[in-house]
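We modelled the chain as a single entity of 197 amino acids. Its sequence is:
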Amino acid sequence: MAQAGTFDGRDIARIAVFAAIIVALGLVGPIPVPGLVPITAQTLGVMLAGAVLGWRNGALAVLVVIVLVAVGLPVLSGGRGGIGVFVGPSAGYLFGWLAGAALTGLIAHSGGRPLRWWRVALGCVVGGILAIYAFGIPVQSLVTGLPIGDAAIASLAFLPGDAIKAALATVLTLALQRAYPPAFSGVRAAGSSVRAR
């Protein structure tokens, strides 16, 4: 058994695969919303990363994507990338992905395995929606000059799509658990000091 905090080749491979999934979901072009942050499919990848990989590796998969953006690769929806993304209206949402994947993983895996649908769904809603909005809305307000209340109300337009993504992430995670349990090996329940076998 490996000690907590260590990585093996399988961890690195899983992190790389989920970073690639998040990037691939960016190939689905953004749906522009006038005056708002565009709707993208990439938050589905963020939810999946946390739900499948757990809090640590899920957050690391998102961190890989953020680093790729920072070095200028066009990995965000619509082919966006570069330092300019970190000062735009969507910057807070991008950083919210990191917290979102971690919270999704913490909640989904809090009871150990097998995963239960309600924990995965709760993780996707709290991490994949609420945490991302908690980072995104204040930054959007700051960058656009909108009062924070108006930015929050404007963000309600995203809720139906995000709820669909949370439901889809829940279904896909549970289907993967049934079809390919090794995808979840190495994921520890929150508070566990030894990796699950």
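As a brief sanity check on the tokenised model: Residues 42-70 form the longest helix (29 residues). Residues 141 and 167 are 28 Å apart (CA to CA).
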